[in-house]
Amino acid sequence: MTSAAIEVAGLHKSFGTTHALDGLDLVVPAGQVAGFLGPNGSGKSTTIRVLLGLLRADAGTARLLGGDPWADAVALHSRLAYVPGDVTLWPTLTGGEAIDLLVRLSGRSADKGRKEQLLQRFELDPSKRARTYSKGNRQKVALVAALATPGVELLVLDEPTSGLDPLMEAVFQRCVREARAEGVSVLLSSHILAEVEELCDTVTIIRQGKTVQSGTLAELRHLTRAKVSTVVAGDTSALAALDGVHDLAVVDGHVVFHTDNDALPQVTRALADLAPSSLTITPPSLEELFLREYGDELAALESDGVTSR
Amino acid sequence: MTAVALAPATPTVARGGGRLTRTGALLRLALRRDRVRIPVTVIILVLMVASTLAAIQSAYPTVVERQQLAATVGSNTAFLALLGPALHPESVGAMATWRIGAFLALVVGIIGALATVRHTRREEEAGRLELVGSLRVGRLAPLTAGLLAALVMVGVASFGVALPLVGQGALGALAFAFQNLVSGLAGVGIAAVTVQLASVARTASSIAVSVLVGTYALRAAADVQDSLSWLSWLSPMGWGQKIDPYGDDRLGLVLLGVAVLALGAGVGYRIQATRDLGAGLIADRPGPADAPGLRSVQALAWRLQGQTLVTWAVPVAAYLLLVGFLLSSVGDIAGDSPQVQQIIEQLGGAGAMQDVFVVTIMGFIALAAGAFVVASLSRLHSEETAGRAELILGRSVPRTTYLLVNVLVVAAGTVVLLVVGGLAMGVGNGIAAGDWGYTGKVLGAALVQLPAVLVVVGFMTALYGWVPRLVVLGWALVVWSLVVGQLGALLDLPSWLQDLSPFSHTPAYPLDAVAPGPLVVLVAIGVALVVVGVVGFRRRDVVA
Ligand SMILES: Nc1ncnc2c1ncn2[C@@H]1O[C@H](COP(=O)(O)OP(=O)(O)O)[C@@H](O)[C@H]1O
Ligand SMILES: [Mg+2]
Q1: CB-based contacts of A159, cutoff 8 Å, min separation 6
Q2: What is the pLDDT of residues A38-49, one digit of tens each?
Q3: Residue B198 sits in the same domain as residue B310
Q4: Residues on chain B touching A107 (C-beta within 8 angstroms)
Q5: B364 and B466 fall within a common domain
Q6: pLDDT confidence of B72, banded at 50, 70, 90?
Q7: Which residue ranges traverse the bilayer (chain B) (predicted)?
Q8: Which of A154, B146, B488, B505 has its CA 20 to 30 A from that of A224?
Q9: pTM for the whole structure
C-alpha cells in the first residue's frame, strides 16, 4: 500500500511559553506497527492529541487515515481506537460498563464473544467499580475497549504498557501482533526502547518536540547496540580489535563494551576463548542511547546551564 | 449492603512510636490547599450576618417595632419552624441572631462536615493518601491532620461571623460564635464517622449532610410543638438556640459539640486504625459486567447526573413540603394586634402575605437551582482535567453533541428540581389547608424561576466553552444574586448592579401578574450564551 495511516510534517504546538512540539515529523505506514519513542515530556502525548483533533496545531500538517484530524475528527474516530497514557474512568461505573460505553460511542457495538475473550486474556474482572481498579487495571479496561471495537483500521496507543506487569505485557504484545495480522495500523508510543524493538516495524525517535531519527528497525540497528559486561582472565586486545566492538574499557578484570547486534557472532566466539566467569548482555536504555547519540549536545546544554548561573 | 465485622483496635506501632508523626506538616499542607476557600467562605458568611444585622437595625429601629415583629412573625408557626422563637425583642443583637442563627448554624455544620470529608476520604479516594502513607508519616497522622484542618475552618467561620455583632455586645457575640461552633464541631464529629463508613467521598458527604439537615428538622418540630420540645436536645442547632446569644449566653453548652466531636473522632480513629486503605465499612458490591442501557452520551450524562439531582431534589422537596404545610398559617401572622392587621390589610390582606411568603421562598429555591447548575456544569471541567472528556471525544462523538447533551441534561435537572419543589409545596399546602385552589399558583411560582436559572446555565456553558478554568465564576454569579436579593434595596445599590443578577428580573408571581417580556429576554440570553459556549468549545483545545 502506498498511503500512510498517519502523516505528520513540521508540527508545532505551544502551551503558553512551553514549546511542546517544535517541528515534529512522523509517518505511520498503513498496515504497520510504528514505534513512537521519546523520553518523558518530549511531546508524544501532545502529538497524539493533535492527531485525535483534541488539540489544534499551531503550524504544520497532519493527516490521519487520509483525513484532517481536526475537521474530520468524528468520522475518523469511528475508524480508530485510542488508549490514553493515563486512563481515568468513571468511578461509579464498572469496568465492563465502561468498555461497552466506549465501544458504542464509536458507533459500533461490542461483539460479546470478543469482549469476553479479551477480558479473559487480560485477566480483568469487569464487574468491579472503576474506583477500585489499579492503574494497570484501568489501562486494561481502555485496551480491551480499544481491541474490542470492531472495524478499527488504526490503533493509537499512548504508552499502553506503563502499568502492566510483564505477563500482561506479553498478552498485550500478542494482541498487537494479531491486530497487525488483520491489517490494522498501529501507532505505539513508548519511552522504553526494548518494547518498541520487540513489536515495531518502523520507529520514530523524538526529543524536545523534534524528530531526531526515523526509519525501519533494520535501518536503526546501530541504535540498538547492546552493552556487554564480563569478567575475563585473559588478554582483551583481540576483542577490542574486532569490528563492531566499541568503547571497550577494562577495570580490575571487569570488561565493559558496546557491540553492534550483527557483530554478536564474532564477539561471542572471541569471548568464549577468554573463558568468562560472568557475562551479561543488556539492551541499551533510551537514556543511554540519548547519551551516546546526543551526549555532546546534552553536555553543551548542561555547561550552558552552568555558565549562565 | 454488607457490613464487615470490625476487628478490635490493635496498635500497629509501639506506644508513642509515632502514630502521629508529621501531623503538623500534613496540617500545613491541608491548610495551604484551603487558603482561598477559607477566606472566601468566611467573607460570604460575614456579609450575610452583617446584612441581617443592618436589615434589623433599619427596618425595626425601636423596641416597640421589634416587639411587634416578635409577636407576629416571631410567633407564627411557619417562622417558628424556620427560625425558632424570637425571645428577646428588646435586643437588636438577639433579633439578628434569631433571624439568621438556626440557618447559619446548619451551614457551619455542613461546612465542617464537607471540610472533614474533603481532607480525609477524598484524599484517600484520589490516591493521594496512598502516596502520603508510603512516606515517613504516622498511621493516624493524615486523619488527625484532616480533622484539625476541618476544625480550623469551623473555628475561623464561627468566630468570623460573630465579628459584625461585636458592636451589639461582646459577650453576646461570643455566644453567637459558640452557637455556630457547637454545630460546626458536631458536623466534624459526624463526618469523622461517615468517612469511615463509606468508601466514596460523595456518599460520606451526603450521609453527614442528611444527618445535619435531619437534626435541623428535629429542632423545627421542637419549636413548633411544645410537647416535642425535648427533641431540640437532639439537635446541634437546638443546642445553639439554647446557648441563647444576647439572652442567657450559656457558653458552657458548647461542650455538647465537643462531646459529639470526641465521640465521632474516637469511633473514626478506631475504625481507621484497623481497616485497609481505600476500604469502608459499607463494602463495595460488584456491579454489572455489561451495560446494555449505556448507549450514548445522553445515557452517560443521566447516569452521572441523576445521582446529583436526587441529592438536591430530596432536601428541596422535603423542605418545601414542610413550608407548604405551614403556608396557610402565614395568613394568621397578624395575631390579635389591630395595628398589624391594618398594615396587612393595606398590603392586600392575608392572601397577599401568603403570596409574599411564596415569592420569598421560591427566590431562595431558584438560587439553590442556580447553585445546582454551577455545581453540575463545573463537573464538565473536572471531567476534562481528569481525562474522561478525552476518552469520550476520542471516540466518534461530536464536540457539539458532547457539550449540548450535558448542558441539556443539567437544564432538564433544574426543571425537575423546580417542578418537584413547587409540587411539594403545593401538596403540603393543599393537605394542610384542605383546599387545593392555591396549589397551581405555587407550582407557577416555582416555574417562573426557570428563565433566570437558564441564564446561569448559559453563563456556565459560555465560561466552559471558552475559558474552562473560570467556571468557578459561576459561584460568583450565584453569590452576587444572593447578595443583591438580600441587600440590593437596603444598600441602595445602583440599579444596573442589581440588574446584573438574572434573578432580579423574575416576576414576583403570585403577588404580581407575570409579564412575559422579561422572561422571554432571560430565555433568549440563556440560549444565546449556550450557543456562544458551544462555538468556543468547538474551537478550543481539549486539555487533559
Ligand atoms: N496542557 C498543557 N499545558 C501546558 N503544558 C503542557 C500541556 N500538555 C503538555 N505540556 C507540556 O508539553 C511537553 C510535552 O508533553 P507530552 O506531550 O505530555 O510529553 P510525553 O507524552 O512525551 O511525555 C511537556 O513539557 C509538558 O509539560
Ligand atoms: Mg505522555
Answers
A1: A44, A85, A189, A190, A191
A2: 888 999 999 999
A3: no
A4: 396
A5: yes
A6: confident
A7: 38-56, 100-119, 140-163, 169-193, 200-222, 251-269, 309-330, 356-380, 401-423, 443-463, 470-493, 513-537
A8: A154
A9: 0.83
